Amino acid sequence: MALHQLPELPYAYGALEPYYDEQTVRLHHDVHHKAYVDGLNNAEAKLAEAREKGDFALIKHWERELAFHGSGHILHTLFWQNMSPDGGGPPVGKVAKEIDRCFGSFESFKKQFSAAAVAVEGSGWAVLCYNPGFQKLEILTAEKHQNLTQWGVVPLLTVDVWEHAYYLKYQNRRAAYVENWWNLVNWEDVNARLDTIGV
Ligand code: MN
Fold this sequence. Notes:
A hairpin with a 4-residue loop joins β1 (125-131) and β2. The protein is 51% helix and 7% strand. It has 7 helices and 2 strands. α1 packs antiparallel against α2.
């Protein structure tokens, strides 16, 4: 697997002045975003090492690191590409129509998006998303982006490990439930999901 790379900014460091200052862009991209890329590569390397050794003693730690740095890399890449020195103003084209359809008007969308962004507690994000399942745009926020795993992924296969999913039969023996669940996996369904995203 190739290592993740810090993407170049699609404009000069000072190109977003006066709205976004050069010094902040430099630090934010070269230091903060780079730390996510390095952290993601490290988490993937440690997980590969764990698979080789068959030693998953630190799995919780590395899964958290994978989600934290993976989402950080994905969201920062989106953030840089979402801005342009020639940006601003009202939306045009498809997104303008979808915003009108889903939020009533650009003005009401903008108010909701700004309110959501300002209200995020601590560090986080406001994100305009398209939910293919619901076939609509949504404004979502992330207070801790690692809690939402890697933004942008397409779920393919899931096991429900909430206690309600197994407690009647397995009580506290979650590992036995998970082991038996493997006998039920519908790989044709997983393949069909891969087909829909063109993998
Ligand atoms: Mn940031």
